Amino acid sequence: MSAQLVTRRWRGLAAVAAIIGTVFAAHAGEQAEQALAAIKRLQASGEIGPGTALHLTVKQGNIAAFLGRDFELQREWEKRTGIPIDAKLMPQLDSQEFIEHAKDVDLTIARNHEYPDLYQRQLIEDLTPLMRRFGFALPSDATAGYLLARQQAFLGERVVAIPADGDIPLLYLRRDLLEDPANRARYRERFGRELAVPQTWAEYQNQIAFFHRPEEGFYGALEQRERNTAWMFWMQRYACFAAEPLLFDRRMRPLLNSPAAVAATESYLATLPYSPPGILDEGADYSFTLPLFMAGKGYATIITPAGAKLFSLDSTAVKNRFVSVALPGHLRNGRLQRHSMLIYGNNLVIPRSSAHKALAFLYAIWLTDPEVSARSVGVPGGFADPYRYNHLRDERIRRVYTPQALDLVERELPFIIPSGTGLPGNSEYLAALNNNLWLAAQGKQSAREAMARTARAWEEIITRYGREQQIRHWKAFRSLFPQDVSAPAR
Q1: Which residue segment(s) compose the domain that 241 sits in?
Q2: Residues 271-277, mean pLDDT to the nearest whole number
Q3: Residue 301: enclosing H or E segment and its boundaries?
């Protein structure tokens, strides 16, 4: 891999601040107006010629958010700029294969964990020069800044995406069942403790076993267990069981062949007896688990804040009967260690093949303006979760997502670890992990064997990509991890 692709730190803190923080104070509308003014200048200079269209390709769950309620954002953009949006849909999967073969696409979306491979394969643009050219930043102020700009936008010190989705996973429980006096009495008798929101994965396991009633078509756990997303539900457990939530040591030796990794795998596998039939089927992702929860057929599920939006619909059986809570953790020396991680996360990237890179960038900046994005996120039919601080306090959005879920999202921010491995070859690392978790879930190998085989596969990937270069990438990625945020057990 070229040395130009190796992440480097900026010389001096001022250069970093110019990109991520305090230089540009993004008040509602200011960011959007600045982007529109830049569009006008490019049109006047001829860089954006007559008849130019913006070719936007996103997923079904994003299209409503990007175009607005009844296409109001699309109409507003086209009225203000005269530039039509040609919007198309892409598969509801990781974006790498789509971007690799896409033609006539100026702007699309990619998940947080995909950046290293997309950039290393020269499939997406480094947006840092465009940020500088047009005078923009990604502020992180608690008034209207981006919630997790460093994790969602950066690869090392390069800006490679504009945040447009805040997919922090939450645990959803049936509040009515938790509060039921008869359930509380039976649980106390069976486990010798009060039935309450689970602090640890062990307590969570007890609760899904307690509520599991398959003979009635009711299931304790509605966590997805299909192969492609296995890593998402395993890594958050591993981050709690490990002394540090790191996948490699400083010399890039995988830490998977360890008691913590085995414990995380055992916790991941332990939900299977309390899951519905078909949970291991190919494609049984949230499109399989969420309808069951919405129909009142399960006690617990894990999904992003979009869950609160869905579960609050009048058509569901669980409206006003669920609660959003933090993911459980693990007790270590009397303190509760827990972490969450961005899963999915569809942020805006510009394919290297884009014919209108400046236009695509300015549209992304316009769309993610505090005021414009509040109207985008608040669209009832869209699933772009809140990703700026003002979203968490906007009454329109709070009504859709529930105040309880959005207050929880803000409290969870210090616990978020970065997504995936952060390394070129990320898709290969995750595929090896997914496959071994899949085989273990089918009973074809033990938790210990799954981790040992994954560690060996990861060593082979490290060797192919070059250990020293991987170490440099890992060092940059490590800087995104939060400091110790464990709390005394209650």
Answers
A1: 170-342+423-488
A2: 98
A3: strand 298-303
